[in-house]
Amino acid sequence: MKTLIRLCDILAGLTGLILLSPLFLIVALWIIIDDFGPVFYRQQRVGREGKDFYLLKFRSMRIGAEKMGQITVGERDPRITRAGYYIRRFKLDELPQLWNVFIGDMSLVGPRPEVRKYVDLYTPEQRRVLSVRPGITDYASIEYIDENRLLAQSPDPDKTYIEEIIPAKIALNMRYINHQTLGEYFKIIFLTFYNIITSICKH
Questions:
Q1: What are phi and psi of 54, to 5 degrees?
Q2: DSSP character for 164?
Q3: pLDDT on residue 72
Q4: pLDDT tens, residue by residue, 133-165
Q5: Beta strand 107-109 pairing with 40-46
Q6: CB atoms within 10 A of CB 21
Q7: Mean pLDDT across the chain
Q8: Distance from the Cα of residue 40 to its chain's centroid
Q9: If you write DSSP's letter for every residue of 168-193 in order, what string do you get?
Q10: Is 87 helix (H, G, I), strand (E, B) or coil?
Q11: Domain-wise residue ranges, the chain
Q12: What per-residue confidence (pLDDT) applies to 68?
């Protein structure tokens, strides 16, 4: 089963990179025109078996923004560029991760990879999420599609993220980890697209 899922990842990653290349070019030019600087943002994340890798995104925040904190609070976080607001809203910033999927750092479906700071706080049971490839989406990503808005309402976003959101997300991660089938794989992909479209229409 894992071999079939990996094959789907390779085919989807390669197909996506080829078909979406015109969109990649448009987004890249948009970023450069809006806020001259690097098009892509590379961040070290923790992958399968606790090994670090570099996750790739379209840059949606100002250069050096990470020094002011790793959690994005609300859609109007002042660190987000004008183009970045829309890039994030339409989830375009995640598209370069198709490269991570193609080369095997990630899967289309799996737990979202965390930064080392938060992984170091995992309990032994929570570290089970590191037994699989991290993914672009899973049940936790769908459930917490408005995570930034939730954090914006908290008086202490970092504490809320550590004590409430991480445990809840990991519990949702385990639904797929404990039931990795092609049916679940495609179901999560379908639900992700459905929720993105629904979220966009709402706002």
A1: -105, 115
A2: I
A3: 60
A4: 999 999 999 998 878 778 878 888 889 999 999
A5: unpaired
A6: 10
A7: 90
A8: 14
A9: HHHHHHHHHHTT--HHHHHHHHHHHH
A10: helix
A11: 2-202
A12: 61
Cβ(79)–Cβ(61) below 8 Å: yes
Distance, CA of 5 to chain centre: 19
Beta bridge partner(s), residue 58: 40
Q: Give the C-alpha separation, 189 to 166, whole Å.
A: 22
Share of the chain above pLDDT 70, in %: 92
Supply 147's token pair.
């995570």
Q: Write the pLDDT tens digit of every residue in 58-91.
A: 999 887 666 665 566 555 677 889 999 899 888 8
Instruction: Identify the band that residue 203 occupies on the pLDDT scale cut at 50, 70 and 90.
Output: low
DSSP helix, strand, coil percent of the chain (3-state; round to 5): 60, 10, 30
Q: Tokens representing 76?
A: 């109007």
Q: Are 167 and 126 in contact, with CB atoms under 8 Å apart?
A: yes
Please choose, from the candidates 47, 39, 132, 43, the residue with its C-alpha nearest in 3D space to the C-alpha of residue 92: 39
> What amino acid occupies position 196?
I
The answer to whether the beta carbons of residues 96 and 56 sit under 8 Å apart is yes
Residue recorded with tokens 């980890």: 177
Paired with 109 in beta bridges are 137
pTM for this entry: 0.89
Structural contact between residues 128 and 167, judged by C-beta atoms closer than 8 angstroms? no
Is the Cα torsion angle 23, 135, 38, 152 positive or negative in sign?
A: positive
